[in-house]
Fold each of these.
Amino acid sequence: MVVVMNETATEEQIQKVIAKLVEMNFDVHRSTGVNQTLLGGIGDHRNIDTRNFELLDGVHEVLRVTTPYKLASRAFHPENTVVKIGDVVLGGETVAVMAGPCSVETQEQMEIIAAAVKKAGAQILRAGAFKPRTSPYSFQGLGEPALKILQTVAKREGMLTVSEVMEVAQLPLLLEYVDILQVGARNMQNFNLLRELGKCRKPVLLKRGLAATIEELLMAAEYLMAGGNYQVILCERGIRTFENATRNTLDISAIPVVHKLSHLPIIADPSHGTGRRDKVAPMARAAVAAGADGLIIEVHHDPDNALSDGAQSLFPTQFSALMDELRMIAQVIGRKL
Amino acid sequence: MVVVMNETATEEQIQKVIAKLVEMNFDVHRSTGVNQTLLGGIGDHRNIDTRNFELLDGVHEVLRVTTPYKLASRAFHPENTVVKIGDVVLGGETVAVMAGPCSVETQEQMEIIAAAVKKAGAQILRAGAFKPRTSPYSFQGLGEPALKILQTVAKREGMLTVSEVMEVAQLPLLLEYVDILQVGARNMQNFNLLRELGKCRKPVLLKRGLAATIEELLMAAEYLMAGGNYQVILCERGIRTFENATRNTLDISAIPVVHKLSHLPIIADPSHGTGRRDKVAPMARAAVAAGADGLIIEVHHDPDNALSDGAQSLFPTQFSALMDELRMIAQVIGRKL
Amino acid sequence: MVVVMNETATEEQIQKVIAKLVEMNFDVHRSTGVNQTLLGGIGDHRNIDTRNFELLDGVHEVLRVTTPYKLASRAFHPENTVVKIGDVVLGGETVAVMAGPCSVETQEQMEIIAAAVKKAGAQILRAGAFKPRTSPYSFQGLGEPALKILQTVAKREGMLTVSEVMEVAQLPLLLEYVDILQVGARNMQNFNLLRELGKCRKPVLLKRGLAATIEELLMAAEYLMAGGNYQVILCERGIRTFENATRNTLDISAIPVVHKLSHLPIIADPSHGTGRRDKVAPMARAAVAAGADGLIIEVHHDPDNALSDGAQSLFPTQFSALMDELRMIAQVIGRKL
Amino acid sequence: MVVVMNETATEEQIQKVIAKLVEMNFDVHRSTGVNQTLLGGIGDHRNIDTRNFELLDGVHEVLRVTTPYKLASRAFHPENTVVKIGDVVLGGETVAVMAGPCSVETQEQMEIIAAAVKKAGAQILRAGAFKPRTSPYSFQGLGEPALKILQTVAKREGMLTVSEVMEVAQLPLLLEYVDILQVGARNMQNFNLLRELGKCRKPVLLKRGLAATIEELLMAAEYLMAGGNYQVILCERGIRTFENATRNTLDISAIPVVHKLSHLPIIADPSHGTGRRDKVAPMARAAVAAGADGLIIEVHHDPDNALSDGAQSLFPTQFSALMDELRMIAQVIGRKL
């Protein structure tokens, strides 16, 4: 921590700050400059509320110099984390693709879609059993029967599964049926849920909150890792901005930023990130070109009659054509898909 | 719903949209203009995904004309909702003040603070038992013992209580000890929690999410009301913007906007809305001047040693001076405090 | 400047950073901590691109510790700047009110409105001669004839005038006719215009840009002051956020923030800040309650037929009632209006 | 325009709205629904302030159905606009690349960089002569001598030139020396400048403002086109969001959105969009993968000593390697570079 004193700070004010730093077990380094005095507080304290210093008299600003996360940081763990589940690898050379409908609706629907996305090259089948919906009057998901269908169909196709867990109480059910536990954007800071998932030993797909900074995303990952679960896959799915030509603004630059700050793999969700079918392909290509470790894409064989989010689901033929493009783009940057 | 066709849309494209509207049980009114054709879809469907029409050929834009919420809207319920709990009234002539520390720490701490805020005029004692913290290494709250202390101290002072419920499993405990159940900003769209709270018959203080629009706040209220719980108090507590001179941007204009769109009372939280003690008083005054139905303010007798959020807590003397100012401002606009 | 090294930085990397700091004439203070090394660069350099250090190997982060503005900062000039123009004082005990129509339309229109706002207590008459309009098909202002009308009418009423200058070429004209030169939000970073205004010796009303941070607003003020023009009045007029229930989000908290960081007066514009007549009064009251040094408010006697922005103009009777409320709120916080 | 009445609106209120629509020369279509009445106002009025209707009693909401721009819209002009300058084509099959330093510093600097970017495949040489700087204490550009150097060096290399015009007074100079006139992000709504550029017959590169919606960008293009200058190239260069891990958030999705709404070409600026050299290559690849019609990239042979923005400039070897990747990505989506 560095405490920057006002240019007009008195010696007495400076001494009070020093005393407080010492009281909190910091080693203090004082730098007296032409304009200002800086006080460096050296110590292993990731969890300080810097505002306590900002409010002292004579203090101009307080700068935290340690990242508030540790286990998730590349400084702590320079090598990439590679999440391996069966034959599927996330965070390595390969770009992994998760695809499927927004919600499980029927066994037949899942069979048609799974066969199509598998054939096009997807390795992981996605579909929701519990749906967080902004309207209390909307379809809320089929629950356990959906999970059974998901598991059955994926097994037949030789695919892995990913599905969202919305609260702690659903966790046992999800653990029984799926390979990757998804935390939705609205739950990125549901700390009770994160704590429980930290105790699991299954990979977690952690979606960035609509208004979460990348630092907060890494803090949420830290919750999982602090519990001992290191198999964390991050997911950029769009942030809220003033622009409303798209549902959200897919922050493609989060991909290289996360790769610099953290060792964890990061994938992109162009379906939720744009909210409209005709924008999914360009943004999927952009994500892979920017170095994403994977994608999660909504596909539906009959989106007009989908029970949720049909408007952002690709038709199977569109998905297949997209996969061909992605394969070539991955090669350009030395990866496979 | 109004479907706006492109200026170049063909008659065939228009007919396809009409067919789809009819199929979805809308009455269709067609308006053929100089430049464009408009198709009005008339019917009682609050829950349509307009994107399904946007993707049809020839469609320029689809405009939803019904608000997605109903029970929370002033059109449905023109009179103000007045929440009465004992002698305390929210949404009426009086401006109600909730005050107390961020977290319950000890019985002694609560006694000192409760006595001070009661004397200054607060009617409701606030304090957290379960704390959502962005860092897994931070103080997480005392749990049930905190609730017991909160209840005991409030009773002695003749105050009501408000405390946050973070997940469904905590609900029985909260119901036993507190008078107003608080839903935190991060849980505004925790739909399972909202659904359970909708079944309760205790008032809910619903905080606006950091990135939630006012419409989404009212949708969340709708979840509660759809379950039969009409005692909903909304709370503006700051939104995330590009400005970082303050922790969040307290959106004071949300107060008159909510008063126009909804009949529900709305209060403001200047402590979380600014994150710094020296900004709390000006923003509390601003909120009351703009017509807020109440305030929730953090107060601590020893903020330097508070276990959480000390930096945004007022000293009791500051709170007392602020209450005097608020009393006079309330009078200016014909209210009492 | 403080350069924070990575936890894994090598001694060689640290030495390279030190060499670069020395090369740029910084005194270097090194603090070696348990986890990390910090390098304090001490010197009077407000104008360093810190990214040049961020890109060096082994560097975690670079923190600027000097504000990039100096003349505008309270550290440099602890006393409030008080702008005096004739009998009108901005930044002192009094809250000054500027009022009038969006645009000058006719002499008669100006006479009616000026008489009304003067009677209600406004001291400064506002009206535009040159209008920046988002549509090329909209009314663009009357130009010089408008300025003549503004000056004539204000003189008769014993008022001062404020009007917007949109580009350097208009400056001579504005200097001839108005008392306060307004820089619009879209021109806050029109540096050529700021530079020319810095050479003038007339007060400038500098509006915060729609997407400008408070720091950038103070940097723009610095441009004016660096030229020798110290009579700068800042104006909060709403920022762009994700919320679109209001045209912009009036950032009331900018008022106490500016008062802490700078000695310059700050006023608020609730008309542009909300964009709708029915939100102007609550937000005007909020701004004064938060400590604004003044207000600028649009008033029109016939807003339905105004050539621009009628929807956000108060009727004269509304303005008069608002002024009565504001007078009482100002008193509560020890000010006059 | 569609006026949506409140569910509780009276017949009298409805009649008043109809009367106002008729008064403003709209044809009125009334749709009476189960819950609400809709009034469609049909007519060729792109320039209506819808707030004038919103404020009428009984009105719930007013929806504009005509885009506020016309010449820039794809509905008006379904074919892509292809800007041809000499051998260079923007908006066609080819992806055009503009490259060069942030500012012209010396003839030697320009010769080195121009030779390098030309060899790597860039067709257009970029460099600033007038620099808008947020600090009054920063390098402000060399002015006319810079333009002479730019022109001389570009001619020798057989390249076109692009440089920024900051105000109307600079226009004659820029017209003399450069092939493409750049409007910077801060000037996107400098309507006087746009109006003058509309009278020119040289291509304009129009950068999206930091806080401008895509609709506003197209409105700014409309200003140019309304004056008769149809050679408009749009440029996405990053928007301001709450995330500050990057200088701005490059909105890659603006590329497919513009391609749907407008016929104008759009390029991307990954240098300003990210602000850091190590993020430029991934974002440049993403932009081309998403369908950008071109790129503008900062390159400097000695960025450590660049007078401005060195931190976001690529080294020539990095640029050359990037161009090789871009060439392959362009092919994947059926384009050339």
Amino acid sequence: MIKMIHILLFVLLSVLLSSISNASVNDFCVADLKAPDTPSGYHCKSPTTVTADDFVFHGFVAGNTTNTFNAALTSAFVTDFPGINGLGISAARLDIAHGGSIPMHTHPGATELLIMVKGEITAGFMTPTAVYSKKLKPGDLFVFPQGQLHFQANSGKGQATAFLAFSSSNPGAQLLDLLLFGNNLPSDLIAQTTFLDVAQIKNIKARFGGRG
Amino acid sequence: MIKMIHILLFVLLSVLLSSISNASVNDFCVADLKAPDTPSGYHCKSPTTVTADDFVFHGFVAGNTTNTFNAALTSAFVTDFPGINGLGISAARLDIAHGGSIPMHTHPGATELLIMVKGEITAGFMTPTAVYSKKLKPGDLFVFPQGQLHFQANSGKGQATAFLAFSSSNPGAQLLDLLLFGNNLPSDLIAQTTFLDVAQIKNIKARFGGRG
Amino acid sequence: MIKMIHILLFVLLSVLLSSISNASVNDFCVADLKAPDTPSGYHCKSPTTVTADDFVFHGFVAGNTTNTFNAALTSAFVTDFPGINGLGISAARLDIAHGGSIPMHTHPGATELLIMVKGEITAGFMTPTAVYSKKLKPGDLFVFPQGQLHFQANSGKGQATAFLAFSSSNPGAQLLDLLLFGNNLPSDLIAQTTFLDVAQIKNIKARFGGRG
Amino acid sequence: MIKMIHILLFVLLSVLLSSISNASVNDFCVADLKAPDTPSGYHCKSPTTVTADDFVFHGFVAGNTTNTFNAALTSAFVTDFPGINGLGISAARLDIAHGGSIPMHTHPGATELLIMVKGEITAGFMTPTAVYSKKLKPGDLFVFPQGQLHFQANSGKGQATAFLAFSSSNPGAQLLDLLLFGNNLPSDLIAQTTFLDVAQIKNIKARFGGRG
Amino acid sequence: MIKMIHILLFVLLSVLLSSISNASVNDFCVADLKAPDTPSGYHCKSPTTVTADDFVFHGFVAGNTTNTFNAALTSAFVTDFPGINGLGISAARLDIAHGGSIPMHTHPGATELLIMVKGEITAGFMTPTAVYSKKLKPGDLFVFPQGQLHFQANSGKGQATAFLAFSSSNPGAQLLDLLLFGNNLPSDLIAQTTFLDVAQIKNIKARFGGRG
Amino acid sequence: MIKMIHILLFVLLSVLLSSISNASVNDFCVADLKAPDTPSGYHCKSPTTVTADDFVFHGFVAGNTTNTFNAALTSAFVTDFPGINGLGISAARLDIAHGGSIPMHTHPGATELLIMVKGEITAGFMTPTAVYSKKLKPGDLFVFPQGQLHFQANSGKGQATAFLAFSSSNPGAQLLDLLLFGNNLPSDLIAQTTFLDVAQIKNIKARFGGRG
């Protein structure tokens, strides 16, 4: 009798599961990074090949800060972590040595939420008329609204660490110095559109590999 | 003279149609279910192969309710009905025999609108502090806001039928019993994270095919 | 001992509920129709005054078809059913007597899904180069992609009934005859921009109350 | 010493650039028009093949207005201008000779913003109860909210020109005359669903190529 | 001469700033929690009263885990942190003592990204046919796609800490035990829609304050 | 007899119009700029007070370019043109005298489409590894994808004019010089986060009114 119920149950389950297994296609969409991208994200890997490992990212650890910036950014964006494809979220880890900083940059179209973990960071963003800046310590969060130019500088005595969350699975990171001085934008055009002196421009271009 | 106008007209029409026929690509996007999915839905079938049949779904009829649940769900989700791809809407039909129910479940990210057709259904959803539940008769609608845990039980004397509309072309249907007891989630982990007794868990696992 | 666990439990619950009760604000947003509208919908009623009745709509019943169109539309849009505010879904009931029709119309920005309930309806939408039209019987669904001009005509021998679901909580219903002939758009301007004869225009204006 | 800094700098840059070059995939998504479309737009061309030319559209010039409408529409939609794929914007140029007009039409789901450049255009849209119409001169803008039926007629003494911007990269242009009279929609069905006389319908069908 | 340039400059700046100061209204929208909510979030505080403090949240610290769950959730949702209003992101901190867990729950419509900070947590979510679960250590991330039922259990030897980011400024946290056993949902209805025994239901209701 | 049909018709119309007049609330949402803003835009003016004038913007004319930049931006954003509220589109007019430019700036979260009207403009945007820049003449369009740092410089012999369309009703305009040198961001912090010399910074601050 109980067996019969079980058989009937599985008849129903197979009916119910027909819609459910279809539906599970969209519960997640792990990126197939070898296929082309679309405006909404990468193609979905076949759900039958997805495993728990697709939803884990390893290596959210301190980067090497022995460099000019005395800073390192370790990203877990969709191209690093295919499981977040289409889900509108990603993360990064920030390590800044004494005296270092992540220079001025924007994330086009993504908001950034900073979680302080260790040390002290002075973080802020600017509008044409105001500066919104604070010294942050462990236990503090700071939000940089989408697309705003912002910075993070170690203002403490030792190493500083922060975790970053973004409202996009692929926020990018447009460093101002690289945009202005790291490509082949002509120096006189930069001077005209920034009011910087040409000498200053050429000086920084030498450091960031810019030509022209 | 009129003929000449017609000729000129068609010259213009062909110009106008050049943008119009391009544009019609996006007026609809019938799913090519054989191609990969993306976060925004399936690839579009070539518009030149689309016919009126792509916008029709047949078989929105009573399912077989001779089973343990005494209930049947007939879905018209994007995988059943490719014409709704990318349009943010889908439907299902609910048939519940006397004493039956659609047990607790969620649709991740989709709102459900229930249209009562026949009989009486007690439907509701819960928040941690309140139950929003009503007895529904033909002529009544009920809305289950997105992602809320909800149920539908036949509370009348005969068969009950309802039509469901969803704010997603692929709403899924996550039955709580299948999530907890239909896969290989370890029983002691279920006990720890639900406060159910292990004996109770094993009992229901036996019915829903769960292992572990 | 068990009592102590319960006390401790409620200590935790009150902590957990502090975020949960806040969060429930956004699980739903029942419209306060007396307050102003915004681009995303109406203000939310205070969650403490929301009851199960806010999620039910009564009166999804046959409208009166004794009129020129031999048809009736009974809407459950956000202004009729505040519980669907912000949820991207709504519904309507269509009753068409023998020989009647819902004339050409659009829903700006909303897709419509038609569920046949009784009788026979010929439904369709047009692009500049094609007509997508079908005779529909109970058990059939038809989808009208967003913003497309479409119609529903009773093509059977008796009454016809269909339920409609929309991908917007306020889809509107722009009847072509009312847009062209029901307001004070000048007849010569209509003639110029539709290629209809002025006599024809004035004739239909007389029926739909148009001036000018 | 400075050289050493530069070396260290490039070590960091290569670390930073690893995320940046990935991220740049999504800063833009130039359409690969040969690949299939998706609900969010076309596949992205490989970023390594993108050049400045992908972001430029040539040919936004006066169209030929020697035709029945005395008007021309030159579109820069995604199928004409792949660089706007996924960016939610597009444009068109409108040239209307003396006495001409762009007849009644809709853009399903896209808002249109008209910028007057030359001459005088009377533009407007209608709701069932009101006409929102104005005579526009250079220096004026007019907005047609999404999905509304609207028209533009030259009401001045010479040529008129306007630029149009749309809130979609593929807004379409559904001309009412083509929807009703340019395909094979049966004349009696048109009569029933528009209240036009069959003679009038057949008359206009002859002009727009409609059959049936 | 330089002075004149400065004067002219400020003339231009005032022109440019007229649009810029308007625009800054939308660069951020700090919530006015005393005004009503809308489907897109709270009303914006007047930008002239916004200071850097609006973008900081203090108190992202360990919660008290001396309770039945041996766990604590510290939320930084929009109702706790008005600066994230309308930005589609929020955060929480999770502290779980030895043997504790955050029981089964969902966030309707929000994806959750977990960043491991200390100890070991076993985290996972389930579909009807699979369990996606992993043991996580510092340096690991895990993503729970939107609306999925999931859990986090301390599987290590000491305290465990994780930071959570959500793709919504108000993700909620629907604990399964509270939804089923913490309100006045009738026990026989729970039994019918979960397949749990009534005795088991009443037992857990006693712990979570449920009536009926 | 015909009269009777008309009476019956108006009975139906009043039924149909009950939903239609409600629906028209959402066909557009003209901003009430005196009420607070929300994340989705301003409150809607009462539809009964809306007239055709709400959909027109006057003053899209050449601005005064007699200033340091030799350039003028005339905006038609939502705060200038309430009729575009909630519609995801806006416009601006650019006039640049010989030798002038609109310096480096971003629109957070909005794409910009430039329509060349007169003269010659060199326009472009940069990623860390490439410059996408072109000389534009009348008949050319250029698109700046959302959030990218970009510029427009008059590279011709006379005046240059362009019209701009944005994929947001409130795109803002974040001029880099104002963000860095127009507020009270400390000079040493700017130096640290841009690699500019302090002397250079102070020099430009003097021109843009910056302190600190």
Amino acid sequence: MANQEAQDAAAAGVSEEPGPLGEAWVARYGETPPVDVAEVDPFLTHRSVRDFSDRPVPRALVTALVAAAQSAATSSNLQTWSVVSVQDPVRRAEVARLCADQRQVRNAPWFFAFVADHHRLAHAASRVGEDALGLDYCEFYTMAVIDAALAAERMVCAAESLGLGICYIGALRNDAEGVKGLLNLPERVVGLFGLCLGWPDPNVANPIKPRLPQSSVWFEEEYDPLVGIGDYDDRMSRFYAEQGMKGDATWSMRSGRRVDEHHLTGREALLKFIQEQGFSRR
Amino acid sequence: MANQEAQDAAAAGVSEEPGPLGEAWVARYGETPPVDVAEVDPFLTHRSVRDFSDRPVPRALVTALVAAAQSAATSSNLQTWSVVSVQDPVRRAEVARLCADQRQVRNAPWFFAFVADHHRLAHAASRVGEDALGLDYCEFYTMAVIDAALAAERMVCAAESLGLGICYIGALRNDAEGVKGLLNLPERVVGLFGLCLGWPDPNVANPIKPRLPQSSVWFEEEYDPLVGIGDYDDRMSRFYAEQGMKGDATWSMRSGRRVDEHHLTGREALLKFIQEQGFSRR
């Protein structure tokens, strides 16, 4: 690194020396950090939490977390997302059933369904006598999915900064029609993903999962179609073994098999469903 | 609030008393916080930053931020996103031109294009002799958009925790074909949004934008189709006036007009483009 850049790095609070908090980096990449990552370390330690303690998460805290979600960027301030919390035990069991019966959906102190939401905009348009034909476009579906995910992840970062644990639930898309019925979603609203939230059970270890090397996902100036994943298959195989996961398939093999037509778990109907709801029709 | 819940709240580090750091909440909602939000306050203060100082952002720091991005949750660990940084001045000017000539794209110390990426998975599938027909489904497009947005927002939360400023660029979708060409995106990769990053210009104020009331976006048990936005139109009108923005339209009027067919700025072609790239064909 050039001297000037090293000075800039020092001024920015980073240095070439591995930081004392580099364990998360090691877990992600299988090597010591090339730079001091202490300052961003809290953002490297995410793991999915599926087992929660009995300690309650008060509503006041959730109120603060929803404010964090709403503080995320949103395209043109249109705020094309909403969230529905499901706390009633009978209804929660029904959500869990719709989400492949995942235990964390049933047991988490809080469950949130994040939804793409054009209903408010369609209402606003009707009041000013404008059609809302723009909402029919894939662009507006994409915008809503981005808005919802940005909001959720800011809420998650805030929650994790307090020691809370979370697990996203993609299985909310397994039975989009069922979710629509349970949550009373009108036209122009569709469930995107769930979020389980609570204090982690201290008796359950939640490992940090290795990720692809940075060079596999961060390209400079232009994309390199030559796929290189370095030692990732080896690292993930060790991780699977450490976690007692059966099978000796590598990440590449698992992932390659995962994208055939037989692992869609109901989600093959998603395009038809969202189009019926008024999304991505053209 | 019930006594038990107040105790739980206190134990969780929140109380009924407004916190000393409640200014961000006031800016968002136009009222003092009903709970102590001090602990999540850093996550409430996001604002878009379009003017940056000359202070450089060293590569080492970006490396740490990309690690934060990669630490976000990703569906089934498939990691269906990538990021392309564009730093070459000539290429940056070209990106800016593709993004409605927004000055922050041209001037930000760093610019990142976040892309939905199925290229790696298609490659992995071909190596194990599996077709990758699942990738054709809207489900996998949705998954990639969520993955990319979660990654970006974790990177943004990490960056903002260090004092950096950011601005998302939805205009990366204005000319998807042009972005594909400039960034050398292969089949099964599509640009989703840009991200400008740098130290904020200390001479430029970046106000925190008001948001809809929580009751408008957070529903309990089920969605309420009766649209209520409280005093939001009044609050946003005051905000527009304070910012010297011309026109007396309310948020509802602006948003209602924004979703007609005439504000798509090239993005009306998005569905056709992503289908040609191999996304959301069915």
